[in-house]
């Protein structure tokens, strides 16, 4: 939740696994620059609090990390607002994130973000 007591914003966790097909990584990489630029704008606005790629357990200590999805935390007025942001992301529109497995849920942080 927000550290500002007058704020009505809530936190939302997004779990966005990638599609499992072999071509998904190339789709991800083809729009990654745009995705990161848009995420940077959302960070600057305070809407995106943190986000990053999920990677396979066998590659997390290597130089060749295999991305398998994304996890993000947003600050927003509603779940619907976050859903709109997510559905306008190039990873969602470009069939990187698996739309059937995507989860958006309210989130309470143990520490202020």
UniProtKB/TrEMBL annotation:
Sequence ranges assigned to domain YCII-related in this UniProt record: 12-98
InterPro entries named in the record: Dimeric_a/b-barrel, Sec-metab_biosynth-assoc, YCII
Pfam families cross-referenced by the UniProt entry: YCII
PANTHER family in UniProt: PROTEIN YCII
Name this polypeptide is given: YCII-related domain-containing protein
Taxonomic source organism: Cerrena zonata
């Amino acid at each position: 939740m927000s550290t500002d007591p007058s704020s009505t914003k809530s936190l939302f966790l997004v779990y966005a696994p990638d599609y499992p097909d072999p071509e998904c990584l190339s789709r991800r990489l083809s729009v990654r620059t745009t995705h990161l630029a848009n995420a940077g704008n959302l960070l600057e606005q305070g809407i995106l609090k943190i986000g990053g790629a999920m990677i396979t357990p066998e590659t997390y200590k290597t130089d060749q990390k295999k991305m398998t999805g994304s996890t993000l935390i947003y600050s927003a007025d509603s779940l619907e607002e976050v859903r709109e942001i997510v559905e306008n992301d190039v990873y969602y529109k470009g069939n990187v994130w698996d739309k059937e497995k995507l989860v958006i849920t309210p989130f309470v942080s143990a520490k202020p973000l």
